[in-house]
Amino acid sequence: QVQLVESGGGLVQPGGSLRLSCAASGSISSIYSMAWYRQAPGKEREWVARSSTGDKLNVADSVKGRFTISRENAKNTVYLQMNRLKPEDTAVYYCNADILATRRSRTEYWGQGTQVTVSS
After folding, report:
1. Residue 96 forms beta bridges with which residues?
2. CB-CB contact of 78 with 58 (8 Å)
């Protein structure tokens, strides 16, 4: 069974930085994309950033210029560097991955989420 495990969340003051990590494990043949989503209280889950095949990196307009996504393929890990954090960035951040596992169909997987709180 493929698992995604996030880490790096926590409490930070406005203007501060955090670096989230998401590591995929299991019987993995290929990872086609890894992405970050977030869900704030009272809001729908929204897409934040994605790393896709072909070394394509994309971030949402709401975080453009502040957040950067990167991937370390050898470790099956994706990162989200979050700078100049704002209170409105407070949310549970979820890792998502499009993965082809051995003897399984290509499937999307989700991590358990990690809390990011931006407050003074």
Report:
1. 35, 110
2. no
Token look-up 């989503």 returns 37
Distances in Å between the Cα of 41 and the Cα atoms of 30, 48, 51, 75, 119 are: 34, 16, 26, 32, 15
Contact criterion met (CB below 8 Å) for 82 and 102? no
User: Where do we find the tokens 């499937």?
Assistant: 107
Structure tokens at 72: 């370390």
Residue 120 CA to residue 109 CA, distance in Å, equals: 34
Residue 1 pLDDT greater than 90, yes or no = no
Measured distance CA(112)–CA(40) in Å, rounded: 15
d(CA 49, CA 78): 10
Distance CA(101)–CA(94), nearest Å, equals 20
| Confidence band of 54 (pLDDT split at 50, 70, 90) | confident
Q: How many residues can be counted in the chain?
A: 120
How far is 87 from 78, CA to CA, in rounded Å? 24
Report residue 111: phi and psi, to 5°: -85, 180
